[in-house]
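Re: [help] complex structure
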Amino acid sequence: QIHLQESGPGLVKPSETLSLTCSVSGGSVTSDYWSWIRQAPGKGLEWMGYIYYSGTSRYHPSLKSRVTISVDTAKNQVSLHLTSVTPADTALYFCARDLGVGGAGSLDIWGQGTMVIVSS
Amino acid sequence: DIQVTQSPSSLSASVGDRVTITCRASQPVGSYLAWYQQKPGKVPKLLIHSAYTLQSGAPSRFIGGGSGTDFTLTISSLQPEDVATYFCLTYNTPPWTFGQGTKVEFK
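Output below.
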């Protein structure tokens, strides 16, 4: 059974870079696509982007200039980097297995999420 | 980008009621539509993918339908544990797009 666990700093200063890690256990990060999704307090869900271990990636156009998702196969982890953050980036950040690419399913397994607050 | 309009934004119903939530996509997405349930403070849970395929472990009272641009999630007999917010998600072409959510409460 695949299990995902997000981790990273809970507080980031405005204009700095937000960096989060998603550790994959019970499976290999090379087996599937992986997405990051965020949810601002009291708001809906926003898909940020996905990656495959080969490097294939797609990002939400609204974030494209600031977001990078990468895979570390040695550590079995997926990472998210979001530059030039503002308070609007305050949210609960989730990683998820993405079976939507290729139409085999959807975002079926999610981590518990990690809360990030952007504040000076 | 595909825009998704989900309705209603909230609804109140009684135990045993049949409840229907709708998502409309701004352009055809085939059957690449999923439904999620999110309880307060919890992680979204996949209920339906590929428009009507019940995810393993999801109760059979959750029924997905539609194709193209118009989709529905029906709860055939509302149960107390179904109080939650429901989101649709299109994944035809990136960016994947979530609906705004429907909060289901009891009368």
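Chain A touches chain B at residues 35, 44-47, 49-50, 58-61, 94, 99-101, 103, 105-108, 110-113 (CB under 8 Å).
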